[in-house]
Amino acid sequence: xxxxxxxxxLYASRPVLEFVNLIVAPGERYGLLxxxxxxxxxxxxxxxxIVLPTSGSCVNHYRRPALLFQEPRLLPWRTVRxxxxxxxxxxxxxxxxxxxxxxxxxxRVELMPAADAWPGELSGGMxxxxxxxxxxxxxxxxxLLDEPFSALDPALRATLSEMCSDYVRKSGAALxxxxxxxxxxxxxxxxxxxxxxxxxxxxxxxxEDPTSSARTAHRLHQHLADKQAHTP
Amino acid sequence: MSLTxxxxxxxxxxxxxxxxxxxxxxxHLAAKWMGPMMMATPFESLQAVPRLIASGHFLEHASxxxxxxxxxxxxxxxIGFALGVLAGLSPQLRGLLExxxxxxxxxxxxxxxxxxxxxxxxxxxxxxxxxxxMMVPGMYVNTxxxxxxxxxxxxxxxxxxxxxxxxxxxxxxxPALTAPLTAALVIATAGGVRLVxxxxxxxxxxxxxxxxxxxxxxxxxxxxxxxVLLILVLVAALEFLLLQPLQRRLSKWKExxxx
Lengths: 232, 259
Description:
Largest interface: A-B, 31 and 26 residues
Number of helices of chain A: 7
CATH topology of chain B: MetI-like fold
Distance between the termini of chain B: 22 Å
CATH architecture of chain B: Orthogonal Bundle
Strand content of chain B: under 5%
Structural class of chain A: alpha/beta
Strand content of chain A: 25-35%
CATH class of the largest domain in chain A: Alpha Beta
CATH class of chain B: Mainly Alpha
Distance between the termini of chain A: 39 Å
CATH topology of the largest domain in chain A: Rossmann fold
Helix content of chain B: over 70%
Radius of gyration of chain A: 18 Å
CATH superfamily of chain B: MetI-like
Helix content of chain A: 25-40%
Strand order of the largest sheet of chain A: 5-6-7-3-8-9
Number of strands of chain B: 0
Number of domains of chain B: 1
Shape of chain A: globular
Order of helices and strands of chain B: HHHHHHHHHH
Largest sheet of chain A: 6 strands, mixed
Shape of chain B: globular
Number of helices of chain B: 10
CATH architecture of the largest domain in chain A: 3-Layer(aba) Sandwich
Oligomer: heterodimer
Radius of gyration of chain B: 22 Å
């Protein structure tokens, strides 16, 4: 379980998140929306344990969280294969398990021909696929996605989003995913969280109602557009 | 972050050769002008090299110096590197070490030799101690600088994926520090040789520096310059046979590979 309790975060004494209360239980899927700088990345970084709240608490009980960043963040001096292997070894897996999982995920993201290439030789899409393989090879029980596909073309973005949804459905992992695109997000999650002025507003999606996602996306769009119109 | 790296133009070998020839010609002219008592010509020095090597004391002096260089430079660089990594991670430690770094960089090595002679007497412990002391700050400064330039995004990534300290050291810090560290090692090695020879001239009973001082006092100018030639060959060998291949091996990822 991931739990934010009265969590506040200030950056240079400017409030980013104000008294956030949120519980992400196993299997739950949350989407994060908000204009740039609203605090989506900060919330995900707190969940991953690399940013500490200014006050309140953020406790993560998941054992294998993985965060997929906006950029691939591959080690440029290690090959694609090594980039996937090293976090697995850090997890304490045996050598044969590390090799098996690495090969499996390199295959799944279709990077077999580039397995021994340096990250500097990959295209943006290939590098992000390698980063995805690195995250999924850990078999995470909490998947944190920070607009990981925003720089990719729409077709590849759809394929990789589908891969993430597929993994979450099959593994039962919890998901927190941020995005700029409400339509794409509502297809992946059960509930959207809109961050505005440091506060979180919930938009639940009714799985029984086939029109619920479209309506939620529409409402979110309107809210984001209003917000943009009111920003000086 | 751009991952594509364009290789800078390689140093021109022909121009390096020309630079070497200019030095030899200048040396030769200077020796002719000053006379054999003051300076041996390059050719006379070269002729004295086999004579020097064949003499009974050569091995004793050369091995004493090499041992001191190896111990002094490796311990000094290791301490400088280790402190640099830790200081790169901790602003408090960085602040704490700053006055010491300044002190060691500002104090003239000859003063350290004189003090070390007082504390350790003549011989190897004094030479090694002063070499270590003089090696540490250069390596430390380069390591800290490199640590502060490590991509914060990669740093975050290693924390998300729970790399321990040693894994971060091996897969993040060391590779990221390759360029500043190999440059620092080249400077440190050449500096180490110079320091050891100087300390030996001033206060040792063996070693290349001691033999140099001896040759000077017996006015054996050719032998003196033969020692200088051998020391230059040693520094060149360390740089071109050890450090440059190491640097190339560690920066393999910057070159396009087979894939």
